[in-house]
Amino acid sequence: MTQDLDSRPVVGTSAHPGTALPRPQSQSAGDTPTRESGMVFDVTDLAVHYGAFTAVREVDLKIRPNEITSFIGPSGCGKSTVLRCFNRMNDTISGARVEGDLRYRGVDLYAPSVSATQVRKHIGMVFQKPNPFPKSIYDNVAYGPRLAGMSSRSDLDAIVEQSLRGAALWEEVENRLKSSAMGLSGGQQQRLCIARALAVQPDVILMDEPCSALDPIATARIEDLMQEIKTKYTIIIVTHSMQQAARISDRTAFFTTEVSSEGDRRAGVLVEYDRTDRMFANPADDRTEAYVTGRFG
Amino acid sequence: MTAVLETPPAPSPSEALLADLAGVSGRRKLKNLVMTILMGASLVVILIVIVLVLVTVIGKGWSIVASSFPDWFTTDIPLSPRRPGPGMKAAIIGTIVTTVTATAIAVPLGIAGAVYLNEYGKQNVFARILRFFTSVMAGVPSIVMGLFIYVFWVVPRGTDGLNGFSGALALACLMLPIIVRSTEEMLKLVPQNLRDASYALGATSSRTTLTVVIPKASPGIISGALLAIARAAGETAPLIFTIGAAKASNWNPFSGTNTSLSLQIYANAKESFANANERAWGSALTLITLAVLFTIAARILSARISRGSAS
């Protein structure tokens, strides 16, 4: 499957940071953790097919720890599809097939011995539309810990409070933990979903357009929250808003659709992946420049 | 040019625009009137039928049920159809015993089957075959279900086979397709993003089904099951060959013949004696009352559950 990956041409190599790049000078703080010098994700020649249709191909990415990486690009370019590879959510779609090498802290995520449900306990996800369970606020947050077998009331209370505080929601809901999560506003529901993901104590949080259903104020709260929690987690976010990518992310990957060489079907490809400031100020690829300046997309 | 903005004079309305914006045409008004009357009339027809049924059943059944009040519910059926007076305890007990037993068989099986179809089988060949035969089964006349149980369950056991459980088996066959189909529809309505949320937290598919999908669908699953139960409680044909014709009360579904309100309506209405016919009307009133009470209880239960889970 991946034996000939070195011989394959790679799109966007000119600007590909690769391993040769020096450590990122994190704009916000120079204290990029060094506890593990390795990458969180190391993706080589990834391709995803739905039946006969190729959604995205030739993706090479390295995701660094404690950074926010954003995926941008026009609709249908495969950015959400790639995101869903990182926690194997594509497994739930029948006919989806993932090819290539996707390593999470050195482990091949698609190895036969790796269980998708275990992967998802390390790599949490927040979806486009807030999707709290029709249960109480407390039960929503406690869902993950209970899955992991936690049943002691005091442990659960502690982790629920900690997660809700982590998602900047505690003050708003501490007096109504037993009431239904469906009564919260859209922005609160999305922060509840983040709290629910945090309660599993993941290493990585994947966010699939988490703010697209929210108003600017709720969006700002989520963005502030992401900046706060990135010291503890690695975050990958898919966004349709270039401004959002520019505001919050350390690195940006630009995807687009391209007619594949062997057929006339369009498939998503990774065009360029670099530090966000460079991607927006001085992109290496013309297509990136056209997209970020608004001439296309 | 000075920056003074002049207010243009209000335009006088043009005739053509006025005519175009003017309300509905006479033809549309007429159509509207005719359709409104037709819909109102169909509602009235339906109401007339319901009211007539209720008035007749109450009018003819009330006297025997109320004549010597608790006797109707506390004494067994007179041995001779010629004798006057109340007593339908055996049939009330029989209806409860067979319906409850049938529910205990059909509801868990039906829900499990629907969960398989919607959550696991989806569109595979086996699931498609199951779905097809479920539809076929839903269209089978109830007397055929009764015959089926008679041939394959009652006959091999001889006269011991005539009991409440055999009747319940026949009713369960009738309920099963209704429950499978309504439950599958309800499970289909559960949004995929709730399942995704559960999977993304590391839940297995069985855990997701039990803790997210079924609770979310439960109000609908319950009302589907109640519909099936109400249908079964009123069925006569599946019981004719399967539960015997007892006149004495029997709480035990596994041994001894039994009877039911629907069977008693059938048996007593056939008789030429006025006393028996009166008991048939009394049984009809009792059955309708039981169904109404059951529906109200079900609504309350269903509302309580949906308040607990959704919105």
What does this structure look like?
Chain A is of the alpha/beta class and 297 residues long. In chain A, helix 3 (137-147) runs parallel beside helix 6 and helix 4 (153-166) packs across helix 6. Chain A has a single domain (5-292), classed as Rossmann fold (3-Layer(aba) Sandwich), CATH 3.40.50.300. Chain A has a ten-stranded mixed sheet, with helices on both faces. Chain A is built from ten helices and ten strands. In chain A, strand 7, helix 7 (216-229) and strand 8 (234-238) form a beta-alpha-beta unit. With 311 residues, chain B is mainly alpha-helical. Chain B has a single domain (81-309), classed as MetI-like (MetI-like fold, Orthogonal Bundle), CATH 1.10.3720. Chain B is 74% helix and 0% strand. Chain B has helices at residues 15-21, 26-67, 71-74, 89-121, 125-139, 142-157, 164-188, 192-200, 205-233, 237-240, 261-270, 274-309. In chain B, helix 2 (26-67) crosses helix 12 (274-309), helix 4 packs antiparallel against helix 9 (205-233) and helix 6 (142-157) crosses helix 7. In chain B, 38% of the residues are buried. The mean pLDDT of chain B is 89. Chains A and B meet through helix 2, helix 3 and helix 6 of A and helix 8 and helix 9 of B.
SSE blueprint and pairings:
The complex is a heterodimer of chains A (297) and B (311).
Chain A: E1 41-50, E2 53-63, E3 68-72, H1 79-86, E4 96-104, E5 107-108, H2 116-122, E6 123-126, H3 137-147, H4 153-166, H5 170-173, H6 186-198, E7 204-208, H7 216-229, E8 234-238, H8 242-248, E9 251-259, E10 266-275, H9 276-281, H10 286-292
Parallel strand pairs in A: 2-10, 3-8, 3-9, 6-7, 7-8
Antiparallel strand pairs in A: 1-2, 1-4, 4-5, 9-10
Helix pairs in contact in A: 3-4, 3-6, 4-6, 6-7
Chain B: H1 15-21, H2 26-67, H3 71-74, H4 89-121, H5 125-139, H6 142-157, H7 164-188, H8 192-200, H9 205-233, H10 237-240, H11 261-270, H12 274-309
